[in-house]
Design brief:
Strand order of the largest sheet: 3-2-1-4-5-6-7
Family: Belongs to the UDP-glycosyltransferase family.
Structural class: alpha/beta
EC number: 2.4.1.-
Helix content: 25-40%
Oligomer: single chain
Keywords: Glycosyltransferase, Transferase
GO molecular function: UDP-glycosyltransferase activity
Strand content: 5-15%
Number of strands: 13
Distance between the termini: 18 Å
Organism: Rosa chinensis
Bound molecules: uridine-5'-diphosphate
Length: 477
């Protein structure tokens, strides 16, 4: 323990399970780091059952979760506004409530942490005279792109996606134009200006926390610490890799899917592929058909979390797990009968972290959201990368071309419907074929490297210790 001073970190979370989950894990990690640390997490009131099941039981005496009143943005954004626009406007509108909640606290916060969409609340940290951090619960390459985007905005003319040359970010892997994050796809859309704004706000924090570990992306992290590379652009704001922070097994609700785990218990080791597209991902009708056939043809055991098909790949973002799901309206005829015993179809939502940590699971067909990616890697599970939205195209490229723990389609799935034979081939490659051997090996190595980083004396352990220590020093000033 660093001193007798009491550190009280207030963490502001954006809505959406992909944001709340890593914020909760950061909170838990902080209170576990030192007995003199208390944490209060501020989250928007839940909009889905899955969200309330995650938020409600999370409070402990040292980690308090406070729900901020819901904000109504219906009059402020277009009904068809993009996800990043909605999140940005919600986080803007919630500021007054957040500010007064902070001011009214019996034990005043001594440190402020906001996540990616909360950067507009950083000045509240200045008002209170406390250090402020930005928690980007994703990887360093994505952070690098964001930090460099205000420069790209000035230097690049026309749409990024129309370029033929890759986008160069100092000291980092160049980015294929088609891999840019969603808000960069169309520079005339409101979400692009929101994006450029928060990219420029990130370096206003006293430091940035990332949900990776040093050994995962050493070169990219080095670029932030080099004045001649990204460091020159970002004014050398310190970047702290403190992950991999993932949900522990059986967190939150009791095992609701008892049958599913009974079935998993009976399957051979690493024989089941888990198919799921995050809290909000969906497929088109035609792609669902090919997916079903591909799984069946692969002759592998599977668990498939299914949502009704849509034409927009992030259609379920704000409703994760809510709604109806009538399988008979979109599953190929006879699929359920033919795959009985071999595969399980779970409508809408499944306890993913528990499933991925089960010894019977040997592969993950994933949309490459960063939480899902970490849950796969920390369980040593190789992936099929099927990016849909947000920064997932970058994540998929990182996983396949740099880390070598995933396979992906020949032509990206957002360009055309991927046929059943290709799906069959990818599933067999990561699950059974000889040429998937290296991929399966590398993900096991990464799992160990992540575990080591979190242990006492490991890189992520030390990085969090630095942040905590610095905040403790600030207390004494
Ligand atoms: N998740 C889950 N069950 C589901 C779908 C998602 O438990 O059926 C969890 C998943 O384990 C992960 C989070 O929701 O922790 C999704 O976050 P991620 O960053 O992967 O993607 P996002 O949903 O933000 O696109």
């Amino acid at each position: 323990s660093s001193s007798n001073s009491k550190l009280h970190a207030a963490i502001l979370s954006s809505p959406g399970l992909g944001h709340i989950i890593p914020v909760l894990e950061l909170g838990k990690r902080l209170v576990a780091a030192d007995q003199n640390i208390a944490v209060t997490i501020f989250a928007m009131s839940p909009t889905s059952q899955a969200e309330s099941q995650t938020i409600k039981p999370a409070s402990t005496p040292k980690l308090n979760v406070v729900e901020l009143p819901p904000v109504d943005i219906s009059g402020l954004v277009d009904p068809k506004a993009a996800v990043v626009t909605c999140l940005s406007v919600m986080m803007r509108e919630v500021r007054p409530a957040f500010r007064s909640a902070l001011r009214d606290m019996a034990s005043p916060p001594t440190m402020l942490i906001v996540d990616l969409f909360g950067t507009e609340s950083l000045p509240i940290g200045d008002e209170l005279g406390i250090p402020k951090y930005v928690y980007v619960a994703s990887n360093a390459w994505f952070l690098a792109l964001m930090m460099y985007s205000p420069t790209l905005d000035k230097e690049v003319e026309g749409e990024y996606v129309d370029r033929t040359e890759p986008l160069k970010v100092p000291g980092c892997r160049a980015l294929r134009p088609e891999d840019v994050v969603d808000p960069m796809l169309d520079r005339t859309n409101q979400q692009y200006s929101e994006y450029i704004r928060f990219c420029a706000e990130i370096p206003l924090g006293d430091g940035i926390l990332l949900n990776i570990w040093e050994e995962l992306q050493p070169t990219t992290l080095a670029a932030f610490r080099d004045e001649k590379l990204l460091g020159g652009v970002t004014k050398m704001v310190p970047v702290y890799p403190i992950g991999p922070l993932t949900r522990p097994v059986q967190s939150g609700c009791p095992r609701v899917n008892e049958d599913l785990f009974d079935w998993l218990d009976k399957q051979p080791s690493q024989s089941v592929i888990f198919v799921s597209l995050g809290s909000g991902g969906t497929l088109s009708y035609d792609q669902m058909t090919e997916m079903a056939w591909g799984l069946e043809l692969s002759q592998q055991r599977f668990i498939w979390v299914v949502r009704p098909p849509t034409t927009k790949s992030d259609a379920a973002f704000f409703t994760s797990g809510n709604g109806d799901c009538d399988l008979s309206t979109f599953m190929p005829e006879g699929f359920m009968t033919r795959t009985r015993g071999v595969g399980l179809v779970v409508p809408l939502w499944a306890p993913q972290a528990d499933i991925l940590s089960h010894p019977s699971v040997g592969g993950f067909f994933s949309h490459c959201g960063w939480n899902s990616t970490l849950e796969s890697v920390t369980n040593g599970v190789p992936m099929i990368a099927w990016p849909l939205y947000a920064e997932q195209r970058m994540n998929a490229t990182l996983l396949t071309e740099e880390l070598g723990v995933a396979v992906r389609t020949e032509v990206p799935p957002w360009k055309k419907v991927v046929g059943r034979e290709e799906i069959e081939r990818m599933v067999r490659k990561i699950m059974v074929e000889k040429d998937g051997f290296e991929i399966r090996g590398r993900v096991k190595e990464l799992k160990q490297s992540g575990e080591k980083a979190l242990r006492e004396g490991g890189s992520s352990y030390n990085a969090l210790f630095q942040v905590v220590n610095k905040a403790m020093q600030d207390l004494k000033k």
